[in-house]
Amino acid sequence: MHICSLFLEFSMELNAAFVSRTVSLFGEDRYNRFARALEKEPVVSVRYNVSKMEPDNFLERVPWADNGRYIPNRPVFTADPRFHAGCYYVQEASSMFLEQVVKKYVTAPVRALDLCAAPGGKTTHLLSILPSGSLLVSNEPMPLRAQVLAENVMKWGNAASVVTRNEPADFAPFRHLFDLVVVDAPCSGEGMFRKDAFAVEQWSEANVELCARRQKEILSSIWGSLRPGGLLVYSTCTFNSEENEECVAWIAEELGADVLPLDVAPEWGVTGALSGTYPVFRFIPGFTSGEGFFLAVLRKDGDAPAAQPRAPRMQRPVSKVMCEAGAWLNNAAGFEFVQQGDNLLAMPREHATTMLALQQRLRVLHCGIPLAGVKNGKLLPMHGLAMSTSFDKGAFPAVELGLEQALAYLHRETLSLPQAPMGHLLLTYEGTPLGFAKNVGNRANNLYPAEWRIRKNPMEL
């Protein structure tokens, strides 16, 4: 069945209670325009990682995100090696509005927490737009989703990143650690009806009430980790006022915060508050070019600097290993090299203390640059090094692959590179690193992470 036919079917089967509630909230004219939009295919948008690839300026720009672009159709992203190399992220356009918060209110380096971060859209966006010198901790409590998050963060390549798998309450020991906390809260998903049949099927008034309670529990759990004077960005992908305006009012009045305005161009079609008086921002299909989204930005009452965690002990590698590994990075002096078991990590020097403190108390899946495995005193380059934007691409002999070879590599097939030097090689596609292989003469052993491999070679589709 054509995808448009599915949307028509969904729009005719919307829960009667949802329709009644949403008409009451939106008003009849706005609701009718929204309902007509549900019959159309959703727009597709990507956001470029300018550390690896320049945006395509022939594509229409997402107006509230400098490096966001709309694309005319949805290609098979799996068949593009640049997608696997972290050159861009496929992200819903409305959620890129987070950029406007950073532009207006985050003007100096911060320690930031993206609390509900999987699969990684807002996190990779923050890694691109936070001021240089910032640290971002990205958290996801669900194990499988956390693994996807860690993969996407590693591919994006920013060394000032940590990925954790914890419940919000686990951050309680880190009192006042963060200057910025982003909570893209689990919600009833009304804004995703055009894209997600399951969200339509699962909607109920009871679930709206459950989500609203859960959102307040999450916010209460994390509030102590935000410093006084710090910023909270609260967002959902739903429409109702219980999970949106009413939750924002609860944060402001019960936890103690000011709700802050943002500059919004009228032509963007963003809708303001539909209940209450606080400044909030709602994206509605039919009015904005994207799916449903809600955002508010709040400043916590008071004013205090972020707390400084106690410095744990570090297991420093021997100088020979450190010098060899340092030669693989563009700015070795800016990193602390920490050996943990058989792995060597590079942590930005200014954030090493915080990163190590997080490792002591939380389940950390990714931290800094996973630089090398250490075996019998020798270093074996890890995939995180190839993905890092701090990697000196001249540190290893490079072999440029064509599309078919690149996809075979990402499929984790054994390659034959008879003209290449022996030993570890950096494999690239259009000049962008894809990962490492070890050439042993008659074959090149594929070192692409097994858990990341493309399950089916797109060349065979």
What is Rg? Answer: 23 Å
* Poorly predicted runs of 5 or more residues: 1-12
Mean pLDDT: 93
Quaternary structure of the protein:
single chain
| Strand segment tally | 20
CATH class of the largest domain: Alpha Beta
CATH architecture of the largest domain: 3-Layer(aba) Sandwich
CATH topology-level name of the largest domain: Rossmann fold
Whole-number tally of structural domains: 3
The SS-based structural class is: alpha+beta
Write down the overall geometry.
globular
In helices, the fraction of residues equals 25-40%
| Main β sheet profile | 9 strands, mixed
CATH superfamily of the largest domain: Vaccinia Virus protein VP39
SS element count, helices: 14
What proportion strand? 15-25%
Q: For the terminal residues, how far apart are their CA atoms?
A: 20 Å
